[in-house]
Amino acid sequence: ESSLRLPAPRDVRVYSYNFRSSLRWSPVKVDGGPLLYTVHFKTGAFNQWDEMNCTRISRTECDFPQLLNEPRWTVTLRVRAELGPAVSDWAESEPFVAERNTTIGPPRVSSVPEARSSDSLLISVAPPFASRRGDSLQYRVSYWENSTSTTKKEISRSNTLFKITDLKESTLYCFEVQVEFVTLSDFNIRGLPSAPQCYSTTVS
User: Which residue numbers delimit the Fibronectin type-III domain (predicted)?
Assistant: First the structure.
């Protein structure tokens, strides 16, 4: 029996970006040919292991099926290595809740040129993922004059088109924007900031 035991996979982790999630692990190294891996999952609601869409696969990553992309579910996954009749012990991930554990990417940010004036800029943002019913997204905007003394100002908006006023004329201002995702349980995730972009006000 012991000769049929393989080492279990290590570094078993869920990686999640903008609510797209996958399980990854380090490859098991043994002599005797390429290993295959099988992944199971269970949710907090049903405490039983089910097959995922990754049975006897050769790669060391398994994407979540659509069924599991529920942001509020608690999901635990496990993976084992297989080589002919030999199998390893199961290696489990930490429980994962997308709504708390995903990484939110930066929003897309642009300026609306025809709306520029001497003292304001109109900024348009697009969320990094398609929001679902009940989601609340806030956009935290930092902006500063592109000069030697950079004092940042910050505003927070829930709409995707907003005007920033009280600016100096004919001046270059730079912006970065983060998404703040507020869940129904009032848990906040702050996303990654967008790369700074700079736009100039006009001359009056």
Answer: 8-101, 106-204
Set out the domains of the chain in order of their start, with CATH numbers.
10-100 (2.60.40.10), 108-200 (2.60.40.10)
Nearest to 93 by CA among 34, 16, 18: 16
Higher pLDDT, 146 or 133: 146
If pLDDT is split at 50, 70 and 90, which confidence band does 180 have? Answer: very high
> What tokens appear for 77 in the block?
């996954």
Dihedral (Cα; 73, 53, 189, 120), 10-degree rounding: -130
What pTM does this model have? 0.83
Q: What residues contact 41, with CB distance under 8 A and at least 6 apart?
A: 49, 50, 52, 68, 75, 76, 77, 78
Encode pLDDT of 68-113 as tens digits: 888 889 999 999 999 989 999 999 999 999 988 999 999 999 888 8
Q: Name the nearest CA neighbour of 10 among 79, 56, 62, 97.
A: 79
